[in-house]
Amino acid sequence: MTDQAAGIIPFGSTVIHSEPVDCSKPINRTNIRGKTIVITGGASGFGKACFEDWASHGANIIIGDINDKAGTQVVAQMRASTNNSNHHFIHLDVTSWSSQASFFKRAASLSPHGGIDCVMANAGVAIAQENAVFEEPPDYSKMDHPPQPQMKTLDTNLNGLMYTTNLALSYLSRNPGSARCQVGQNTGTRDRHLILVSSIAGLASLPSQPIYATAKHGVVGLFRALRMTTPIKHGIRINMINPYFVDTPILGPMGAVVLAGGGMATVPDVVEATTRLVADQGIIGRALVIGSKTSQEHAKAMGLELETTDQAVWDVHADDFAQSDLFVRRIIGVTNLITQARGWGGIVSDVVRKVSGATWKTLGY
Fold it and tell me: Most buried residue, 7, 12, 102, 357, by CB count within 10 Å?
């Protein structure tokens, strides 16, 4: 029985995605030079750390952040240390579409070549009080006008990232001098690359943080929806990072206390993982988890295989999602079999029934 006879439509040769990332390979940082990279939330945390690293290797970095003071300071510092005036700060509120649209337009105009090579959708917050009120709400039944719960975490981490992604697809696909992404094409000055910043909370449950976990799961869903279609439609490669808990401002002092003594990821490891995605243009449609460095003994005990002797970065897509993807493909396969069995007659019958029902309803019957 063929795949199509079984209701399965094979991916075929049109799919553009690379094999699992080999974290033992050295990173070709010279491939970062000359690229114009846009980072949302670039004044602190991962965004700032990536800015500093990539700028030191010759990239032109444009950051957006709601914190004007911090953003202005970090750009001034990097201009001085790299002797490159092509680093810029632009005020950005990612929860505002108009703010993001203005940010992208100005970023492209400030780029030395008039376009954007890479977008890192990084801006995010984690507001503990929002999660606490969501999980332990007051007695709304005793209120005439119950207050609307605050959802800034969701608005910033998911809705804001959706705005960034939509604008990135528009600008990256029109990047002057860029070519469509290709598996195995590892170098090039111009690029079309979108990096989505999710979290370990986008792959696993995170008790006491339901809003944050929902937002990060949404980022993973967006990545999985775009990872195959975006390279085909726009020639844009899309990748994702999923850091474990890291001691950055988003974690907050209480988060650091709760995790004290446990294994955590580090900012340098997050930067290295993200740099690998930026520097290797042959990496398409992959996601990396960044955790604490582990020994061969611990890795083997957990069923993992080390590629290096001191590994903190692991490829998580698509292999670890194979079972859920298989389930989805089986459901689609059943639908395909039903559609094939009913043929065009079934389609026509459904359309006629729908149109007839709507007509009778319009006439008041």
Answer: 7
Residue 111's CATH number: 3.40.50.720
Q: Does residue 232 sit in the same domain as residue 287?
A: yes
186 and 160 together in one domain: yes
Judge if 165 and 148 occupy the same domain: yes
Q: Work out how many domains the chain is built from and give that number.
A: 2
pTM of the full structure: 0.83
Q: Are residues 39 and 5 in the same domain?
A: no
Q: Check whether residue 350 and residue 271 sit in a common domain.
A: no
DSSP state string for 149-208: PP-HHHIIIIIHHHHHHHHHHHHHTT-TT-----TT----SS--EEEEE--GGGTS--TT
Closest to 246 in 3D by CA, of 268, 270, 265, 273: 265
Strand-by-strand arrangement of the 237-243 sheet: 88-91, 60-65, 36-40, 118-121, 193-197, 237-243, 287-294, 311-317
- Both 156 and 289 in one domain: the answer is yes
| Domain with 339 in it | 1-9+321-365
Residue entry with tokens 């989805």: 328
Q: What local confidence, expressed as pLDDT, does residue 262 receive?
A: 45
What is the tens place of the pLDDT at every residue in 51-87? 999 999 999 999 999 999 999 999 999 999 999 999 9
Q: What are the helix (H) ranges across the chain? A: 45-56, 68-82, 97-110, 128-135, 152-154, 160-172, 210-226, 229-234, 252-258, 267-279, 296-301, 322-362
